[in-house]
Structures are given as C-alpha cells and as structure tokens.
Amino acid sequence: MAERNRSAVLQKLKFLKVYSVLKSELLRDPDFEFDEYSRRWVERMLDYFVPRGNLKKGLSVAKSYRHLKEGKEVTESEDFIASVLGWCIELLQAYVQALDAIIHEAQLPSDKPYRFELSKDAKVTANDGIFLRSYITRILIKHLKGKPYYADIVDLFNEVEFQMGSGNMIYLIATGYGEKDLSKYSMPLYRRMVQYKITYHSYYLPAACALLMSGEDLEDHIDAKKILVEMGIYFQVQDDYADCFGDPKKTRKVNSDSQLTTIGTDIQDFKCSWLVVKALELCNEEQKKVLTDHYGKDSPEAVAKVKALYYELNLQRAFVEYEAKAYQKLMASIESHPSKPVQALLKSFLSKGYKKLELDVIFSGLRIS
Length: 369
Prior knowledge:
Helix content: 55-70%
Strand content: under 5%
Number of strands: 2
CATH class of the largest domain: Mainly Alpha
C-alpha cells in the first residue's frame, strides 16, 4: 500500500511538471504579442482553473496507456504525450467549469483566491472559457500534429464537447427554467443526463485517448465505451448517495468537476439526484406530496422532512442493493470483453469506485459499513 501511494505521488508530480511545460509554452505563444499584463492575466487564469482537485481524469490517460502496453516499457516520449492529453482533458473540464459558473449562476470554487475582483463579471469568465478551449487546440497542434492518431484525437475532443453541451441542455430543460416540477424527474431522464453531462468526459475520454495512442480504432471498442458510460452512472449514484448519507470526513465527496464539495446541498438545489428519482418511484401519493412541498427549499426544516422520507422509504437499502447489482453487472461485462489489456484498463477504473463510501447506514439496529 505504501509503495502504491508513493508511486501515485510520483506520477502526480511528474504530471504537474508537464503542466508547467505546457503553461510556459502558452505564455510564449508566438501568435500573440504578450505584454506584462496579458501574460500575468493568462498565467493566473490557467493556475486558477486548470490544476484543480485530484486530477484523476488527466492522470487516467497515462495509467490507461500503461495497462494497454501489457507490461512493456512506456518511453519518456509516450508518457509525455499521455500527460499532454491528460492536461487537455483537464483544460476541457476547466472550460466547462467556467461556463457552468455562468449558465447555472454558480459561484466559482473558493479554495483558491480569484485572480482579480473584475473577474467576478460573467463576461470575463466567458472570455476565460474561450481561452481555455482554444488552448486545447493549440496544445494538440504543437504536440500531436503529424502523429497517425492526431485527427482521431481532435474528432474525439470535439465529440465529447458536443456530448457535454447536450448534457447541459438536458439539465437546463429539466431544472433550469420555470417552476420546480418533480414530475419531470424520472430514472430514464437521470441516466440520460448523467450519461451526457458527466460520463463521456470523465470516464470515456481518458480511456479513448489511451486507446488511440495504442493504435486502436475506437469503432472496435463500442462495448468498452458502453461499459465506461454505465460505470460513470454507477459512480454518480454513489456521489448522490453520499450527498445525503455520507460523512464528509470519510467520503470526501468529489463532484464531476473533480472538486471537493459540501455534502448536503442536493435537496436544497432541487438536483435531479438518484435519491429523489428513486423516492418518486417508491412513494405513495401522500409521500409524494411531502417531496413536492419540501424538495428544493433552502431551509433546515424542509431538508429534514425530505431526509426523513428517504429513511422512511429505506433508500439506504435500495442503494446497497443497487450498488451490488451494478457492480456485478459491470464486472461480468468487463470479464466478457475479448481483450485482456482492455479488461485491465476497465478494471482499473472500476476498482476506484466499488464500496468507496465509508457510510454509517443503520437498518433496524443492524450497522452496515
């Protein structure tokens, strides 16, 4: 365990060194005449938005590529390119985070001081987003153009960006306009929203980058894509459960932006969460009225009413049953995949998630941890 942790730390430090290289290149882009102020602006913007959270998405590219090499040595050049692709994924995430702050009128993360007071203006954040997205293109041109998989990588990033935008559209249609309406919420909507808004860029994109680096055709790995999408939904259900029932000190819930979040706001935010969708499936008319009257209201009393209903409906047990069945189905799908290296890649993603929540769940005096 100690050796594994040491290796993970070293990989992250190596990954961060590549960020420094890329940032230095961007700050000396020959196609723009930087002055002192513009260079400082871009540097602070990059440092604020990009190297955030646990960086798991970005780090997953190199890790996935090593699995596909089947124990063969990964050259310094290959490792560097995998890290470059990893940082392009982190830039894509940063771009979406900037847009989310505008679209959802959300506050930007506060674990780092924002660069300038003026940047609280949405127009400045929007311009930051344009920069962040354009840097992906510039990095890919500089480091991947001429490689046999360059065009496929560009297509992949464009495809995933479209899917993320589609996911945000689904979210806005369901929750962004008009009166709060729980009748819109259903399990098919939940799965579709998570699939497009989260799974493609968080799970499929890193694995697909590694497959393309390995010379694979993504059309030959549709089954792996489907497994990664299902895996992403499975992980999001865990995060939704942690929001209500998890202990922040134990679960350290991380949202889709790879940032540690405050547990316990999904109810107040009227989120289309697995818990509320499952509750709507199980509740009677009287219980549904409790949800309708209290879900989405920012008061301790309303939150307590909703949580009490969750306990009444025994959603803890429903989650435990879901988690076990989903894991077994995922493992069966992975083990039926014809490629052993792809199996190893998929298992490496899945191993991070099963029973990752350290939960205190009580069923009539029976403690399940």
